[in-house]
Write a structure and sequence with these properties.
Chain lengths: 269, 545, 288
């Protein structure tokens, strides 16, 4: 497995390197509209063709990688930490704490957060820079995306609370935060890693959907999410397979993250 | 006894057989019915079946197919034709209209139709508490509407103030029965609602009492019924059309037009420029919560003209709409042959001229950024409704066009309610890109857009008094054409309105979209037009084989 | 003890659902566009009609008053009237809930059948290539937008429930696979293996029972994910379910409809998760 982990690391570093080199690989940028070649198939000038208004798709994939590869894992980290905090602590403390935390979690799962997001957009100035808009979007996703795994983590932590090794640690005089940090939290890693891994593509896709509320990445900035939305034109996409490139890249990145995390998990176990 | 029983039995059999026989005979003589079921999609759920309360597109479609009207605007010839009314007369002052109605007509439930029903419908329509868009179109002045039933087939209706194009307005008024227990479900149109599964399907079936016949004396409609699916997604609608699950797409997206044309000849139709337009406007509301320096820009006609000149409309028509649109000239599409001011010149595209115009106003370029005379960088946002990919693309193209003259544009897509709130209540926006659809031919349909006191005077609604001289002039001209029955005088007034609109640019008109539709080869009698409904305007004469 | 726990859960469910309804109403009320109606852009409408449209939601401006009145009416079986569709909310829900329930239930079961089959076989076989393949497959499904999966189900004429199943499958699989993998590394499993027990026996006797409470928690959460997945699937596939209704209501800011749908979704979420909690407690032996 070590070889696969190495390959995964190399792939991720390559992605980061390529996205940082976008200025050299696609010097014309992601916004220039080649209007005489709108909707063109791949060619020597445009390796992945152009989009509906003539922007080079290859350039947009490169620049979009920066946004998605950097911000989606960051947001996933935020949501994972919140999951650990809410779910892990609730399960560890048990009793009324766990019940209250899980009631709040269930509420979070059920509420129509669409309206909170619409309100956030309304509070932001219309002329906010695309970068600020996308930062706010991913921050919100991170802050709202923890609920799914919190319950699972709570159940896992509850199981661990009365396990032999925790009892032993407690009997040895280890208490409170130290007990949680040293003995319980490491054993929650499988769920936390799963949460992190799932959140990356989920947030990339959610960012694109938030465009309907005015959040997300604003034109002309590209993101993988907005590129993936092209796949919704299914009627035509079958004849334009180059539109699947962002999907392939996302699958490669997600798989690479999983390979890196899986191996860490086995080492920890 | 047995003989008597036999005779009674024979008589009973004959009694049962006679209606069936007459029915069959009737079929042979008077009908070319049984010509299939038409299937297409509605893009949203109809909000009401009450024809007087109709506002949304889906409900308008149902009203068109089921409602009987006194006069019908032929969507093909654009001429007004008699329907339930054999003839009509509009008074010289435009306040009164008299109808001579056809006789021997019944509603779908058998209730007889008479002038009482017309009077009832009009009274219901003009009830101020109804707040109906159809009714408001007749409400040109305060006062009560008088209806006078002269005979079962004659009625006169008097309005308190002149109504421009009075007869044409009745194309939207579906007559309701004054005494049917089925209320709005008793109809006079070619079809009636048979079944409705909310969110899923709507079945219309032939109205057995429909009065119209074709030239050969066959009863109309030819179709047995119409099956409507509620389907908002255009990709799925297109998929279903390609799979022959539906027979027509009333409003086809331009990106599907070419693909459809490639795969099947004579299925995709381009009827030419429609009356619809896409336009943007700047926020000129005095109390808008935007910086004062931006208000100064937006309220400058020179600024607006410069922006207009810097936008490449031809590219938008060619790229966004794949050539199925024309650069717009003014408020009226050239497809509106009578009302379009043919003297207006096409909007020029010249970034250099645009820059010169701005420089004349004190703007200057600094390191690729345009700044006003106070040194403020020219940055503004254009908002449009999300989910409309054409508008999003147009806005992005404008972003690049204006970047060439140093103007930085932020494109923001918002959900429609949020956009409407900014546009009509908080006025917290800088520029909006929207469109006008289902536009009527008569300029009176846009009265509330041009009158400065109106809520729909979009760039600066509900002005207590017109804030500019040109708005004062437009108010005067619109009122003049609304109160005149002379078509020539009305045209002169409205031509002048168009000249002012093009000169002052409260709206920057971008493109007039073409009327695109798709009709399966199995459908006979279809002749797509530019007026809505494009494909089934002659639904009673369509058939599916 | 178990009875008390169930009763406690029941009260908590009711209280949480009511709080959820109020919070949801507050969110909708405070969000921009609440008083906006597309109809007011109709140029035919007079000023009075536009004002009347704007006033039509006046009674909903005081959210506490509105919610309290809604609750009072709900006790009598009247769930109010949808503003956007003009029909009684109870009638709309009655027509649509069965379809969504069927769709979600079938999607859930399809997903979990695949999750258990794949996760258990991965845990049993413990072959890196098999695990890798399952990871790539679930990762690919995770990367496909839900709308695309829904459209594919239309394109390939497969049931919408399969689309829902495919949307929730990768998340559930990942949790299940990680939990089973972690449990396999426990000391008691090593001891069992050292004693010569077969992998299958180890899996079903020593691994699954340990992680069962967590798997139940995953299943509980995936019910609410399945309900969420129903929205794009119903909207795109044209199913007249609650998901489609929720989306229309959200776009129209239809407060009576949204509040009732939120309460319904909250109840479903709470029931699923509370059920998982109770069962998990039983399996952990907290109620002898």
């Amino acid at each position: 497995m070590k070889i696969w982990r190495t390959i995964a690391c190399v792939v991720l570093l390559l992605m980061v390197g390529v996205s940082l080199s976008a200025n050299w690989l696609a010097p014309d940028g992601y916004a220039k509209q080649y209007r005489e070649a709108a909707g063109a198939p791949p060619s020597r000038q445009h390796w992945l063709g152009t989009d509906e208004i003539g922007r080079d798709r290859f350039a947009r994939v490169l620049y979009g990688t920066r946004i998605s590869l950097l911000l989606a894992p960051a947001a996933a980290l935020i949501s994972t930490l919140m999951t650990a905090f809410v779910g892990g602590l609730a399960g560890y403390l048990g009793g009324a704490w766990a019940r209250a935390a899980m009631a709040v979690t269930d509420l979070f799962l059920s509420l129509p957060w669409l309206f909170l997001l619409i309100t956030v957009r309304a509070l932001m100035p219309l002329n906010v820079s695309p970068l600020v808009s996308v930062l706010v979007t991913f921050l919100l996703l991170g802050l709202l995306g923890w609920t799914g795994a919190a319950r699972v983590l709570c159940a896992t932590a509850s199981s661990l609370r009365n396990s032999d090794f925790v009892r032993q640690a407690r009997a040895s005089g280890v208490r409170g935060p130290r007990l949680f940090w040293i003995h319980v939290l490491p054993n929650l890693k499988p769920v936390l890693y799963a949460q992190f891994w799932i959140s990356i593509p989920a947030f990339i896709l959610s960012e694109a959907n938030l465009g309907i509320l005015g959040l997300g990445v604003a034109e002309p900035l590209p993101s993988w999410g907005s590129l993936l939305k092209e796949l919704e034109g299914l009627v035509s996409v079958g004849e334009e397979p180059w539109k699947f490139v962002p999907l392939v890249l996302l699958v490669v990145v997600v798989t690479s993250f999983q390979l890196v995390l899986s191996n860490s998990d086995e080492v920890a176990a | 006894m047995s003989h008597r029983k036999t005779v009674i039995a024979m008589f009973a059999t004959c009694k049962k057989a006679i209606p069936a026989g007459v029915f069959c005979l009737g079929l042979l003589i008077g009908s070319a019915t049984g010509q299939g079921e038409l299937r297409f999609c509605l893009r949203a759920e109809p909000k009401t079946f009450d024809p007087l309360k109709v506002e949304d597109d889906a409900s308008v479609a149902i009203r068109y197919l089921t409602g009987g009207v006194l006069v019908r605007l032929n969507r093909h010839t654009q001429a007004l034709e008699p329907e339930l009314a054999q003839s009509w007369k509009v008074s010289k002052d435009g306040k009164q209209i008299s109808f001579k109605l056809r006789s021997g007509i019944s509603f779908s439930d058998g209730t007889p139709f008479s002038a009482e029903d017309v009077a009832y419908t009009v009274q219901q329509l003009m009830d101020p508490s109804l707040h109906s868009a159809t009714g408001d179109a007749f409400r040109t002045g305060p006062g009560k509407v008088e209806t006078k039933v002269i005979s079962p087939t004659q009625i006169s209706i008097t309005f308190p103030a002149p109504v421009a194009g009075l007869d044409r307005q009745f194309d939207q008024v579906a007559i309701m029965s004054s005494h049917s227990p089925k209320k709005e479900m008793a109809v006079l149109g070619p079809f009636m609602v048979a079944d409705y599964k909310p969110g899923a399907t709507l079945e219309l079936k032939r109205n057995p009492n429909y009065w119209k016949m074709d030239e050969q004396g066959h009863k109309l409609p030819y179709l047995d019924g119409i099956h409507l699916d509620i389907q908002a997604n255009r990709d799925v609608e297109m998929l279903r059309f390609k799979r022959n699950e539906i027979d027509l797409i009333n409003s086809l997206d331009s990106e599907y037009f070419d693909k459809l044309s490639e795969s099947s000849a004579n299925v995709a139709h381009d009827a030419g420029p429609s009356l619809d337009s896409e336009q943007m406007w700047f926020n000129e509301v005095q109390k808008a919560p935007i910086p004062a320096y931006k208000k100064n820009w937006f309220r400058s006609a020179n600024f607006r003209r410069a922006i207009s000149e810097a936008v490449n409309r031809a590219d938008m028509a060619k790229i966004v709409f794949r050539g199925h649109a024309q650069p717009a000239i003014g408020p009226v599409s050239p497809a509106n042959k009578f009302w379009f001011n043919a003297k207006l010149k096409p909007q020029p595209y010249s970034p250099d001229t645009a820059l010169k115009m701005l420089q004349a106003d004190g703007f200057r370029m600094e390191n690729g950024t345009l700044k006003d005379k106070d040194g403020n960088a020219v940055v503004f946002s254009i908002i449009t409704n999300s989910g409309n990919k054409y508008r999003e693309r147009m806005a992005t193209m404008m972003q690049e066009d204006l970047q060439k003259i140093g103007i930085h544009v932020n494109v923001v897509t918002l959900d429609f309610p949020s956009l409407i709130e900014r546009m009509t209540q908080s006025f917290d926006y800088e520029a909006i890109l929207l469109g006008l659809t289902n536009v009527g031919l008569d300029p009176n349909d846009q009265m509330n857009v041009w009158l400065s006191s109106s809520d729909n005077h979009q760039w600066n609604p509900s002005e207590k008094t017109p804030e500019t001289a040109w708005e004062t002039e437009i108010d005067k001209l619109m009122r003049a054409q609304a109160s005149s029955a002379d078509a020539k005088k009305r045209k002169e007034s409205f031509d002048r309105v168009q000249e002012i609109a093009v000169d002052q640019m409260p709206f920057i008109y971008l493109v007039n979209k073409n009327a695109l539709s798709a009709v399966a080869a199995d459908v006979h009698g279809a002749s797509p037009v530019i007026l809505s409904p494009q494909t089934y305007w002659n639904a009673e004469r369509l058939s599916v084989k | 003890m178990l009875g008390r726990k169930i009763a406690r859960h029941g009260i908590a469910i009711l209280a949480t659902a009511l709080i959820g309804g109020l919070l949801s109403a507050t969110l909708v009320r405070l969000a921009p566009g609440f008083d906006a109606d597309e109809a007011q852009l109709d140029p035919h409408l007079s000023s009075e009609s536009i004002q009347a449209l704007r006033q039509s939601r006046q009674e909903q401006h005081n959210i506490f008053h509105f919610y309290f009145q809604s609750l009072q009416r709900a006790l009598k079986g009247d769930l109010g009237r949808s503003l956007s569709l003009g029909q009684p909310v109870s009638e709309l829900l009655r027509q649509r809930v069965p379809l969504t329930l069927r769709l979600v239930a079938l999607g859930f079961f399809l997903s979990w059948a695949a999750v258990l089959a794949l996760a258990l076989s991965t845990a049993w076989l413990r072959v890196a290539a098999y695990d890798g393949l399952a990871t790539v497959m679930s990762g690919t499904l995770l990367c496909i937008p839900a709308a695309v999966l829904a459209l594919l189900s239309v394109l390939w004429n497969v049931p919408g429930a399969l689309a829902i199943g495919l949307i929730i499958f990768p998340r559930d699989y990942r949790y299940a696979r990680n939990l089973l993998s972690k449990a396999h590394a426990q000391p008691h499993v090593l001891a069992a293996r050292a004693k010569g027990l077969s992998e299958l026996r180890i899996l079903f006797w020593h691994v699954v029972p340990v992680v069962a409470p967590q798997l139940l928690a995953v299943a509980g959460v995936s019910v609410s994910l399945a309900v969420g997945a129903a929205i794009p699937v119903e909207a795109l596939c044209g199913f007249a379910g609650v998901g489609q209704l929720a989306w229309q209501a959200a776009l129209a800011r239809d407060l009576p409809l949204l509040v009732n749908i939120t309460v319904l979704v909250t109840l479903v979420t709470l029931l699923a998760n509370s059920g998982a909690d109770v069962l998990g407690s039983v399996l952990r032996g907290e109620h002898a």
